[in-house]
């Protein structure tokens, strides 16, 4: 059974729930991909690859993405062994089914464990493993190529321009041999946790100190073997220069997410984990068959619900997202940047949807039908003045919701950094075609009583848990935030209609709806 899968790449990964019921072990796919991002964000080699991917996103020129993939090919073993072993440490009772379901990853995890040449309690092994794989991703040569007066142009930083001693997988072989010959030397002592579970419950005040000891040992072994290596947080000194090189090359900013290796420095581990989770795409089903009906079709034919619950459902989405979400048949839809579509699910095994293009219409045409109009506007669409102005009569707090398709962490920081806004949120589980998803629902409010529209993010249970850890890691955000699961009860009619349509009529959910050729809009 293949119920969930991930594919590590520059723009995220897919959690596919469209085939069968997902086993507990399959849910670890997201965790595996997050560990990949952890290694990327905290190392020089990883940041170089990220810059190239982000340059492709910002410019629309996919040759940058191809260049990134050729560089990443020199770090595949390093990445996969690290992510496989770290995922197993968090598997808990699902470890046996994880190894049975993913035998290739089990072999990678075993190989990582063998490289350590160390017998110790699990938490000490985590320090050692972090040190081995981070140091292999921290070649000094990458930094020198970026900061030197004779620095190579960004497009010329390729595997052919790198010596073997700068390639992570080659460095991993060198470090493995050095550990076999010389070992770790005296191990640091910790008064902290022994197991991963202990760490989750009590933390570890000695984390950075112990992590540095293991890392410095790897640096020494690599350097003595002819593989110069950056110090523990050496990558951070070069982030601005790396970003500036990309901006100079393509003439516009890029998105770059650096991070420190220690929990002590900004951004926190929780930031890194949640930013990684925001690369996840949740797929409930393949592209949905949809019939676009013509202008002559009466609006009343698309009324959904029964009795007092009868309503029209209007979805306002980026046009590109509509075209990728549905297998469209019938009348062509408008070619505009954003589309406004009346939607109704036909039901049946094909989960077919009927659409009527209302993009060129006026809100009054819908209001004149005589049934409530419930509107779901995407966050990306709502950021544009023309959408707010045209559809304002339907975008009220009581009759509309916002589908979160942009980064929650970015926007919640913007909204909560001031003194005025507060946040209420709820987490509610829903069953969709036999699968469990979580609706993260939030609403901003002021002390005056004014509130925002309800925002809805459809996420995995893993993301929902990471979201709460992220809030807890930032006291200034948590102080302005309240978990209020009664929020869904107080707005049950609106949420029931909105979430019902989302789960029945949309195949995928993610936080990457901005146009790849422009900066994500601020709100």
From TrEMBL:
<protein>
    <submittedName>
        <fullName>Uncharacterized protein</fullName>
    </submittedName>
</protein>
């Amino acid at each position: 059974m293949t119920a969930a899968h991930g594919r590590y790449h520059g723009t995220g990964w897919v959690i596919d729930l469209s085939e069968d019921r997902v086993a507990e072990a399959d849910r670890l796919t997201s965790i595996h991909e997050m560990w990949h991002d952890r290694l990327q964000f905290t190392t020089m080699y990883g940041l170089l690859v990220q810059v190239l991917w982000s340059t492709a996103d910002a410019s629309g020129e996919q040759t940058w993405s191809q260049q990134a993939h050729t560089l990443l090919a020199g770090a595949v073993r390093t990445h996969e062994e690290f992510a496989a072993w770290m995922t197993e440490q968090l598997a808990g009772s699902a470890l046996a089914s994880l190894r049975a379901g993913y035998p290739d990853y089990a072999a990678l995890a075993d190989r990582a464990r063998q490289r350590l040449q160390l017998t110790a309690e699990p938490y000490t092994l985590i320090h050692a493993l972090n040190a081995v794989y981070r140091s292999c991703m921290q070649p000094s040569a990458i930094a020198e190529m970026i900061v030197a007066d004779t620095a190579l142009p960004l497009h010329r930083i390729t595997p052919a321009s790198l010596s073997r001693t700068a390639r992570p997988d080659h460095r991993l072989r060198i470090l493995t041999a050095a550990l076999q010959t010389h070992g770790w030397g005296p191990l640091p002592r910790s008064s902290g946790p022994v197991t991963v579970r202990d760490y989750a419950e009590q933390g570890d005040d000695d984390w950075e100190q112990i992590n540095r000891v293991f890392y410095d040992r790897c640096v020494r072994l690599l350097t003595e073997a002819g593989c110069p290596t950056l110090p523990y947080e050496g990558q951070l000194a070069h982030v601005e220069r790396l970003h500036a090189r990309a901006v100079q090359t393509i003439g516009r900013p890029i998105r770059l997410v650096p991070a420190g290796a220690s929990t002590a420095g900004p951004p926190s581990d929780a930031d890194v984990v949640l930013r990684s989770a925001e690369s996840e795409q949740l797929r409930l089903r393949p592209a949905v068959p949809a019939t676009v009906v013509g202008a002559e079709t009466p609006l009343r034919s698309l009324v959904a619900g029964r009795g007092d619950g009868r309503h029209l459902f209007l979805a306002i989405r980026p046009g590109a997202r509509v075209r990728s979400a549905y297998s469209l048949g019938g009348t062509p839809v408008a070619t505009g940047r954003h589309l406004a579509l009346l939607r109704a699910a036909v039901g049946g095994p094909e989960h077919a949807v009927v659409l009527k293009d209302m993009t060129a219409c006026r809100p009054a045409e819908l209001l004149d039908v005589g049934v409530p109009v419930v509107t779901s506007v995407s966050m990306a669409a709502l950021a544009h003045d023309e959408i707010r102005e045209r559809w304002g009569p339907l975008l009220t707090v009581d009759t509309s919701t916002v589908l979160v398709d942009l980064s929650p962490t970015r926007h919640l920081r913007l909204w909560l950094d001031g003194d005025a806004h507060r946040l209420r949120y709820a987490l509610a589980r829903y069953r969709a075609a036999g699968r469990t998803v979580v609706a993260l629902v939030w609403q901003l409010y002021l002390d005056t009583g004014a509130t925002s529209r309800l925002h809805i993010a459809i996420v995995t249970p893993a993301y929902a848990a990471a979201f709460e850890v992220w809030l807890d890691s930032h006291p200034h955000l948590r102080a302005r935030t309240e978990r209020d699961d009664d929020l869904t009860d107080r707005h049950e009619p609106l949420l029931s209609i909105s979430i019902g349509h989302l789960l029945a009529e949309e195949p995928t959910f993610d936080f990457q709806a901005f146009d790849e050729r422009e900066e994500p809009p601020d709100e």
